[in-house]
């Protein structure tokens, strides 16, 4: 077995800090697209259903790519893969404003969404596997908190920037700005050295295994690990249900502000920027909250916050109240995400982390496109308030179901759990492939 890398403390860890700063700017661009893309669709079509269709395509693309993303990540050089994904995304997004000069081409956005989503899924799986190879085990949740704080920075500033750019020169140019940030991310990754375990590149498949059969087996390995783990199993099931009602939340928020309240794109940008304060708060609160209350209480509590905020956004007509509830929504979403991400990194052996991450995302994201389509169609027919309240009640029902699982009293996590999982993984099936 390869000896672990002895990383310096977090603030003196050059590789992590370069990685962190590069991703901070990349996330800023991604947050611009988060608002610019639905605005561009709405400007071109005026349809909530078309906005929902873009979300559906994104979700389907993530699910489809997730079937093989872990296989690719665990068998290739992870840094090289991430750089390639950044460069291709920069090219695709940078082309949008020039294509739009000839007039709106909604089909271009459908194709672009599918391709960028596939690249993003590959990048994100590699990103998750990279972090444990850049920091010490005891720094893992703090590192995820800092990376989430970078996401918060983007969430805070990106939508406001997108609103200004969209109001000034159009949302197509906002997507072009996002493309430029991926160039910076690719350049920063050239300066980062992952630990030896983070290089990727698993041994070749056993003789006789077909490509498709081996691909299914590699995905199944990640899923089997998820299903055998006492916490990851109920977490995956409950998060699948939660994703059903949250993937279309941004579409409902944009439609609520622009259609129901008759306010402009800049206002949407301000509201989403305010919601970034929730991400900032959760990024810094995740580590102390988890140490104090444990994983289960933090994840279930975050889901309760999501439910309350979704319902409140749908029924309130006060813009300040909607902005505050959007921040609460993002606090809950971020707290749950940081805790879930760190748990997987702690309990999963590095050679399997790409496949486990890919399987986890693919399974729980499978419900997202269906949920986004259902929520947007129902909201267009019955109104955002009714659908939002129903979604909030559904989230609280998920909390109730979670209280009946091992998540209720879980304080799991930490290096010992990861060491135990590594030992369990080093059985016959692993050794036969080394």
Question: How is this structure best summarized?
Answer:
The chain is mainly α. The protein has helices at 14-45, 48-73, 78-100, 106-130, 140-168, 171-189, 211-228, 232-246, 249-260, 265-315, 319-347, 350-365, 367-382, 384-402, 415-425, 428-431.
Q: What is the mean pLDDT?
A: 79
Q: Give the class-level CATH name.
A: Mainly Alpha
Contiguous uncertain segments of 5+ residues: 196-211, 414-434
Largest sheet: none
The CATH homologous superfamily? MFS general substrate transporter like domains
Total helical segments: 16
Shape: globular
Count of separate structural domains: 1
Our measurement of the CA-to-CA distance between the termini, rounded to an integer number of angstroms, reads: 9 Å
Category from helices, strands and their pairing: mainly alpha
How many β-strands, per DSSP? 0
Here the CATH topology equals Growth Hormone, Chain: A
Q: What is the CATH architecture descriptor?
A: Up-down Bundle
Which H/E pattern describes the elements? HHHHHHHHHHHHHHHH
Radius of gyration: 21 Å
Helix content: over 70%
Approximately what portion of the residues adopt beta-strand conformation? under 5%
Write the layout of secondary structure elements.
Layout: H1 14-45, H2 48-73, H3 78-100, H4 106-130, H5 140-168, H6 171-189, H7 211-228, H8 232-246, H9 249-260, H10 265-315, H11 319-347, H12 350-365, H13 367-382, H14 384-402, H15 415-425, H16 428-431
Helix pairs in contact: 1-2, 1-5, 1-6, 2-4, 2-7, 2-12, 2-13, 3-4, 3-6, 4-12, 5-6, 5-10, 5-11, 7-12, 8-12, 8-13, 8-14, 9-10, 10-11, 10-14, 13-14
């Amino acid at each position: 077995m390869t000896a672990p890398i002895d990383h310096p403390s977090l603030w003196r860890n050059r590789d992590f800090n370069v990685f962190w700063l590069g991703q901070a700017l990349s996330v800023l661009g991604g947050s611009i697209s988060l608002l610019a893309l639905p605005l561009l669709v709405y400007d071109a079509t005026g349809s909530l259903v078309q906005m929902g269709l873009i979300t559906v395509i994104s979700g389907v693309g993530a699910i489809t790519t997730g079937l093989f993303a872990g296989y690719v990540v665990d068998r290739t050089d992870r840094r090289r893969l991430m750089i390639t994904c950044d460069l291709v995304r920069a090219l695709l997004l940078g082309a949008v404003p020039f294509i739009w000069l000839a007039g709106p081409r909604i089909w271009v956005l459908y194709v672009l969404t599918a391709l960028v989503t596939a690249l993003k899924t590959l990048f994100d799986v590699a990103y998750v596997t990279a972090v444990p190879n850049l920091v010490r085990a005891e720094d893992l949740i703090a590192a995820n908190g800092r990376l989430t704080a970078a996401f918060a920075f983007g969430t805070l500033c990106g939508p406001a920037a997108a609103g200004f750019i969209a109001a000034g020169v159009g949302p197509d140019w906002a997507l072009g700005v996002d493309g430029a940030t991926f160039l910076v991310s690719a350049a920063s990754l050239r300066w980062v050295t992952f630990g030896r375990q983070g290089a990727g590149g698993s041994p070749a498949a056993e003789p006789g295994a077909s490509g498709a059969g081996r691909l299914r087996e590699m995905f199944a390995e990640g899923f089997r690990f998820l299903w055998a783990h006492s916490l990851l199993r109920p977490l995956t099931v409950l998060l699948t249900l939660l994703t059903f009602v949250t993937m279309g939340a941004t579409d409902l928020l944009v439609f609520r502000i622009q259609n129901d309240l008759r306010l402009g794109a800049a206002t949407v940008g301000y509201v989403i920027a305010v919601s970034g304060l929730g991400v900032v708060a959760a990024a810094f609160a995740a580590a102390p909250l988890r140490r104090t209350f444990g994983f289960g209480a933090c994840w279930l509590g975050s889901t309760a916050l999501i439910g309350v905020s979704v319902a409140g956004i749908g029924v309130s007509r006060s813009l300040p109240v909607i902005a505050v509830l959007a921040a609460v929504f993002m606090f809950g979403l971020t707290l749950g995400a940081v805790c879930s991400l760190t748990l997987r990194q702690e309990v999963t052996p590095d050679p399997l982390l790409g496949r486990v991450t890919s399987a986890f995302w693919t399974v729980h994201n499978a419900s997202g496109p269906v949920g986004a389509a259902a929520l947007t169609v129902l909201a267009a027919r019955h109104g955002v308030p009714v659908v939002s309240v129903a979604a909030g009640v559904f989230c609280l029902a998920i909390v109730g179901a979670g209280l009946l699982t091992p998540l209720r009293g879980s304080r799991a996590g930490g290096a010992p759990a990861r060491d135990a999982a590594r030992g369990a993984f080093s059985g016959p099936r692993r050794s036969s492939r080394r």
